[in-house]
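To whoever picks this up:

The parser on our side crashed when reading a file containing two proteins. I've narrowed it down to the boundary between the first structure block and the second sequence. Both blocks are reproduced below exactly, byte for byte. First block:
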Amino acid sequence: MWQWTAIGEGTINYAAIWARLKELPTPLPMTVDLPLSLVQRDGAPAEPRADLLSLSEIDSIMDVSRRRILAGLGETELT
């Protein structure tokens, strides 16, 4: 089963992504899309989670993700 998590917790090699983004001559606009209310089982279409997260859990996951993005890009604040 696949479940979306905070950036940096999972199987994606973010170190390679950060390194590539740092090589770009100008910063790119970015968005973060974490469909935290979905799960995906064995390649099937994503479906709603049975146990929806609370707003405080979502806020916490987004804060962790933001901090990891900043650290990965070597920034102190997103613009």
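<<boundary where parser fails>>
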Amino acid sequence: MAWLTGVVLGALTVWLVVGYGFLDYANTDVKPGLYRNLWTAHGWLYFIYLIVGVDLAFRLRYPLGKTVLILLAGTVPFMSFVAERFVHRDVAARIATATPN
């Protein structure tokens, strides 16, 4: 979910910068339908991201601060990739120490 949410939000951010910086969306009421639909999709994907993030935090018994940072990472462009990397590294380390050789 972190990757999916991050890709959609990253694409929307690039589109926002290009649209308002170069295509002058600010002076028109017409925006591409795909642009609006992607914002809606990101909203639903972020909602699912929140559910999955809370579930993961409960399963791994993360403290509240770390959980909130993981959940907020889905609102900052490209930050969900960073959060996913830290969580993946933590889970891999927990599995490595829990698995007998």
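After patching the parser it read the second block fine. Residues 2-98 form one domain. The CA atoms of residues 12 and 35 lie 7 Å apart.
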